[in-house]
Structures are given as structure tokens and as C-alpha cells.
Amino acid sequence: MLRVLTAICMVMLMSIPAANAMKIKDHHQEIMTGDNGKVECSACHGDAKRKTIPDASVCESCHGSVEDIAELTKRPADAGHDVEPNPHDSLHYGTDLPCTYCHMEHKESKVYCNQCHEFEYPDMKR
């Protein structure tokens, strides 16, 4: 009976994904990989044992402030309705929407606004 329980526990432990087995986007792979060849989860998640969604300040440390990002993705003023609105400076949320509402590292990113709208944003890294 003890052997059976031990075997069951081993199977359960092996089915738990290790942190470095988590999928990471190609465009972050090189930046997040340490000299030891392993992904440094602490770069985004900090040193806490329980990993949480990174704060916007973590994204800003590499990508710039939300204002900088909004400026980079600014649409021409005379574009009219033929151009999709700036995803980083929306009419509803301004620049206050957390990065992680759209940009997800360990699963496919999605356009948060598409809960109500149908925007494509073809340049979005998914």
C-alpha cells in the first residue's frame, strides 16, 4: 500500500509544471534567460514564493512609462474612423488600463477592448 501511495505522489509531483517549464514569449526569451540558461522569473515577478501578476512598474522598467508607450502608438489626428484607436490611450480608460489586461506572457495575449469592440491591432505581439 505504501508503494502505491508513493507512486501516486510521485506522479502528482511530476505533473506540477516547474517555473522554467512555463511558456515564455520569444521576444522576451533572450532578455529573461540568465547565464545559467534558465528563465529568471524574478525579473518580472520579484522574489516572492507565490508568483503574482507583475505591477505596471515592472513593464515600465523596460518598455518606458505608460505615457511614452501611448505616444509611440499614437494615431494621426486626421485619421478619422478608418484607423483603430490608440490601445494605450483609450477613450474609456485613458492610460490607466494595466498592461496585463492585454499583454500576457504565459498565454496568448488578447485585446481587452474586444469584449465590446472588434479591433484587430495587427502589430500586437501575441
How would you sum up this structure in a few lines?
With 126 residues, the protein is an all-alpha fold. It is built from 5 helices and no strands.
Query: What sort of overall outline do the alpha carbons produce when their principal axes are compared?
Result: elongated
Task: Show unreliable segments.
Answer: 9-19
* CATH class assignment: Mainly Alpha
- SSE arrangement, N to C: HHHHH
* Alpha-beta content class: mainly alpha
Overall number of strands: 0
User: What is the distance, rounded to the nearest whole angstrom, between the alpha carbons of the first and last residues?
Assistant: 48 Å
CATH architecture: Orthogonal Bundle
What value does the average pLDDT take? 83
Main pleated sheet: none
GO cellular component, one term: periplasmic space
Keywords: Electron transport, Heme, Iron, Metal-binding, Periplasm, Signal, Transport
Main location: periplasm
Domain Tetrahaem cytochrome: 38-118
